[in-house]
Amino acid sequence: MKDYIKIDEWKIIEEGFDPHLNKISESIFSLGNGRMGGRANFEEAYSGDTLQGNYVAGVYYPDKTRVGWWKNGYPEYFAKVLNAANWVGIDIAIDGEQLDLAKCKVDSFYRELNMQEGYLKRTFTATLPSGKQVSVEAIRFCSMADDETGAIRYTITPLNFDGEATITPYIDGDVMNKDANYDEKFWDEISKQAWENGGYVQLRTKKTGFEVATGMMIAVSQDGKTLNPELKPVEKEKYIAQKFNVKLIANTPLNIYKYAANVSSQNHEAKDLPQIAKATIQRVFDKGFDQMLQEQAAAWAEKWKHNDIIIEGDASAQQGIRFNIFQLNQTYTGEDARLNIGPKGFTGEKYGGSTYWDTEAYCVPFYLATAPQKVTRNLLYYRYKQLDKAIENAKLLGFKDGAALYPMVTMDGTECHNEWEITFEEIHRNGAIAFAIFNYVRYTGDHDFLAEFGWEVLIAIARFWSQRVNWSEDRQQYVMLGVTGPNEYENNINNNWYTSTMATWCMDYALTVAEYIKSTHPQRFQELAEKVNYREQEESQKFREIIEKMYYPYDEKRQIFLQQDGYLDKEQILVKDLPASDRPINQKWSWDRILRSCFIKQADVLQGIYFFEDNYDIDTIRRNFDFYEPRTVHESSLSPCVHAILAAKLGDEARAYEFYLRTSRLDLDDYNNDTEDGCHITSMAGTWMSVVEGFGGMRVRDNKLWFNPFLPAKWQSFSFHVGFRGALLNIKVSKAGVQISNQTSTEVSVVVYDQEGLIKGNDTVTFDVK
Amino acid sequence: MKDYIKIDEWKIIEEGFDPHLNKISESIFSLGNGRMGGRANFEEAYSGDTLQGNYVAGVYYPDKTRVGWWKNGYPEYFAKVLNAANWVGIDIAIDGEQLDLAKCKVDSFYRELNMQEGYLKRTFTATLPSGKQVSVEAIRFCSMADDETGAIRYTITPLNFDGEATITPYIDGDVMNKDANYDEKFWDEISKQAWENGGYVQLRTKKTGFEVATGMMIAVSQDGKTLNPELKPVEKEKYIAQKFNVKLIANTPLNIYKYAANVSSQNHEAKDLPQIAKATIQRVFDKGFDQMLQEQAAAWAEKWKHNDIIIEGDASAQQGIRFNIFQLNQTYTGEDARLNIGPKGFTGEKYGGSTYWDTEAYCVPFYLATAPQKVTRNLLYYRYKQLDKAIENAKLLGFKDGAALYPMVTMDGTECHNEWEITFEEIHRNGAIAFAIFNYVRYTGDHDFLAEFGWEVLIAIARFWSQRVNWSEDRQQYVMLGVTGPNEYENNINNNWYTSTMATWCMDYALTVAEYIKSTHPQRFQELAEKVNYREQEESQKFREIIEKMYYPYDEKRQIFLQQDGYLDKEQILVKDLPASDRPINQKWSWDRILRSCFIKQADVLQGIYFFEDNYDIDTIRRNFDFYEPRTVHESSLSPCVHAILAAKLGDEARAYEFYLRTSRLDLDDYNNDTEDGCHITSMAGTWMSVVEGFGGMRVRDNKLWFNPFLPAKWQSFSFHVGFRGALLNIKVSKAGVQISNQTSTEVSVVVYDQEGLIKGNDTVTFDVK
């Protein structure tokens, strides 16, 4: 837990330079535009503690798996998010002395992430060992308007001397991943070249053969006048720079403009990359920094129009929620169906892979409501394209006949993860993927998606479940053995209620969708049935039998769903009775002790109740919530949001707010002491869910938006935007009422506190607050 | 499965050279004397596929743990058995051409492990690329009579030429472990020196600081006459050699004698090692090769007097059982309580660590019956000395008040293993250690051991169990959650019958022994109680309550002990119905599929029934055997022996024999396709158990030996030796009867087929065979 970020509604601010916090700030102040991004490393050299990180979306390296003990079925490779060429670096030497904040006296250090306009700004005054003083302002961004580019304006002003500066802007591809399993470098150099005022380096990833050309162009001005210093190219392995000398004049600012591009073979012919890089940079160079910055602000303004949540009366909460929305937008724009939402986005490289069940379970609701429909569609299409690999993955584990098991972690569809209890057993992820299809169709009404892509995924998942259960002669029921639920503090358990519930739901939904397609798109149904070799009668009968005879653990005495067989054999202790010194248990206890305990990492039974809320009466929800939440340690960043939403549903506003607080400033306040590795991007969507589904009580039922909002006691008001079937609504909840403004001409029917109302185009309707 | 070893009752023989089998043979033909040993590598250079391995008992290196995903509680280091200096090497060049069997035409290749006399012999004729032919005979052994030494006689005879040989006997410490986690070398050089006709290299292990000096002395003779060639020392890093040239005369044998010593800082002052090495080699050099070889034969004759099992009518079985006994004796002599029985002995480095529960569960019965009492006592004392580390180990996992958890794998008492489901959960090992104490006292009658050492171990183990169970409010019984039983094809299960049975037995035995010590050694009891802070009333009451209220899973319908909760939920398939292509399942199935299946790796419930046989009536044993054995895949080398013994107990002689066959030639026939990594040393004791406890039906009850033998149908007779309370018996089972000869003057009372008889000193009594 840290507390050094200054509160501001639109900005993340750090004042004063503390080298111990630098890696945390590098994560928090990260920049991205969905295509490229990186940590908030300094432009000038820094010999202190830093994690240098620049990333290009979708470019990965299959690092050879490292395990202690090999188990059959482990994947051979783990796709790592690649640390790519550093395009931000500008070395500065003044009369031969290097500017390096680790070696200077630093004053007035200020770092700002301007979320409204989408740039990173840093200013400071440094006194070099020689006594020379300079002030610096650096502004940097990854362009949202032109997503293969970025730009920097680096302004250096000598304060107490005239002198000579040696400036070396560079592209350095000689980088390595901190998390490389065998300390290998992942890039080979293909070509590099210096141009008149720039240069590029073209690199190729080992094994995967992705090529990326990273280039730069330089402009310099002093006191507003363009300079044309003599540039001397410097070439090293995977490195190119343009070095030049400039006379520094006391109190006269020198501006260095660095325009950069990252162009990759994902989007262009590899052989053309150098010229495309050059043309791309030339384009933004010609446009100029100020123009780019204006376009950046405009692009972000458009995002905020659909995304923003405004909280009145709580600047800290306001900053927290905006930070989460900002980072989600930096990570994924939904333009490219080959990309997904990495758990660290562009803020770090830990965990590897880009796609977890987080996407379907947590991010889809966010993008459904705040982005064009195609964004979520792209996320679903991503999984559709990886269906073959999911079927291959299941085959490796002994499944057949088109059964699919989607990977726990992946980049290109192949499984990366290698803990048997997760990789092979945390199979509920398959359910989340099916649920996301359901959720998308429920939200958008885009039923055609089912016939086009969705059902192929659904039937493959249903087949997996039908093979993964087995008939227990002893119980005369179907059981699901050897799984790990969302609560990863239980491994290899039997009959996890959530997983079993998901499994039969998936089978049922696959059958429902089959019937739907059969009746509405009969020819397409024939095509699909042939394509996937659907033995309709046999398979549907089998699914129905399993659905009918599935065993779900239940405790009659407490009238609760049981997380798994034997859960009540555990010593029943509540989290509130755990000594503080024992927490977090995942750092304080040995793994077996955690497994034996009743403590729950994140929503498990309650995750199921969240997904299928309408299937349970309020007393059932309450009994389960009251039993499980007090046993939950919330040691996953994905946990509090589900609890916030359910607490709100149960009318427990204080606790809903308490859960919200745990997520909204997770990274800003470094709650889990791990922000230095990168931010928790996917869980940020959970924060949004806490506000919109929790405080706003938003649901989709019967093709309508339902709201059941309450106003947290500390707040004067909050408002959020929701896009729904062509309309864009702003919902503002205050003591004065629930005011819904339709910002489009498409009329929308909503239900507020069970009272239906029509919101006409460009109209505003106010409902009484409960 | 291979079939290339020639059958001989006293020898292991390989005829013809097949480079593809070389690593297997290197394992099978390994040599050792309990103190040093190594694989059957060639003396001359060999550029083909080989695993070079020389080992010094008790010398290890804590290699940094390698895992995919770190779990709290994992040990930082894994103690590796160290590949040590190669003392067997003698490079041979003939007129500049190197003798290397990978580059010669090889004829008449013959390799023999003479088990009766304890040496390795190899002869061959090689045609060099130049066409020159030589015949070679090499004889090598590690001296049992002088266990820091070894010797080689290497005889080379030119067949079709006169020429000049350049001979380079060397000591090479520049070796590395094949299983090093990070490809590091583990030895540093301390000193080296060439002497007049020898030299030594002194090495120190990194981190652990063990020092070993390995030295050699050389003698040469030709046609029976001593030669004194000019020796030229060659020094390289961690390497010393004495190079010399000799005129080769056609058809005239040249003998090179190489005497070697391995002296270590475990047994000597580190600073004295060079001079001790020199003195040690000088001692055997003066004695000479022939005298050493005679002493070797005599030492082995003494071993065989106590160990040998003679099978008449089945040379293959005879060879198999002798091989097992031979390797066990090569691995561990019981002279040094700091040593233990590594799973690969001196035959390979895989697995690391020297001590597993194999020692207590499988090896102790062998050494109890075939070695002086002190040998087993030393094995128990080894664990006693490591009690503090076992308490430390338990503390790391959250246990307290003197509870001990012995490590799964260790060298010095600290845990090495790092799979959570094994390291933290396969805790039944603690029970085997307590059982070995019980077994030792039952066999030897040495009750004083309990007061001296045993009870301290027992109470620490009992305390562990009392903390490891928990009270289930739901069941109103104590349960044991999150364990892995001996059947490692189930992980993190609840209420494993074997583990729970072991746990309460340990608590009960600790209390029984406490009462015994209190009544017989009251003062010692006071001392002990103070030393371990035994809160007698409180702790004994707690143990008794757990013993009384422990839950053991049981199936009423089948009247069997249930391996664990939920076992009957699994799909019940029998091994005989598994397709051959699916086996072994540990190579063909993914890990989760194995875990979900009902298939059992090795005796689990049946291991408990084996240990506590007298607690169960024959029908109970039969019901459990008939249920579990058909579900057991026997994919551990430790599995068939327990089943052989129980099958014999149940009168199923054919199946008992069948199980015996699976173990007795496991390595000789490379059953599991992994002998190239080394032999399965600890399971060899299981083979012995199959014969003595299975076919011989030997038990100890009421301070007497009981026999209930049968003669396998294929055999004419079998006989084995058993030492018991000062007497040495030979039991011969043939159609003519069960003949028991007392080879000592100590009279012994035995029970054969429930009929008691006294075997007077040096007397033979024959009982009718059943």
TrEMBL record, chains A, B:
The active site is at residue 488. Transmembrane segments: none annotated. Residues 698-756 form the Glycoside hydrolase family 65 C-terminal domain. InterPro entries: 6-hairpin_glycosidase_sf (IPR008928), 6hp_glycosidase-like_sf (IPR012341), Gal_mutarotase_sf_dom (IPR011013), GH65_N (IPR037018), Glyco_hydro_65_C (IPR005194), Glyco_hydro_65_M (IPR005195), Glyco_hydro_65_N (IPR005196), Malt_Pase/Glycosyl_Hdrlase (IPR017045). Substrate binds at residues 357-358, 601-602. Coiled coil: none annotated. Residues 322-689 form the Glycoside hydrolase family 65 central catalytic domain. GO terms for biological process: carbohydrate metabolic process. Keywords: Hydrolase. Residues 13-265 form the Glycoside hydrolase family 65 N-terminal domain. GO terms for molecular function: carbohydrate binding; glycosyltransferase activity; hydrolase activity, hydrolyzing O-glycosyl compounds. Gene3D superfamilies: 1.50.10.10, Glycoside hydrolase, family 65, N-terminal domain, Maltose phosphorylase, domain 3. Belongs to the glycosyl hydrolase 65 family. NCBIfam families: PRK13807.1. This is Glycoside hydrolase family 65 protein. It comes from Mucilaginibacter straminoryzae.
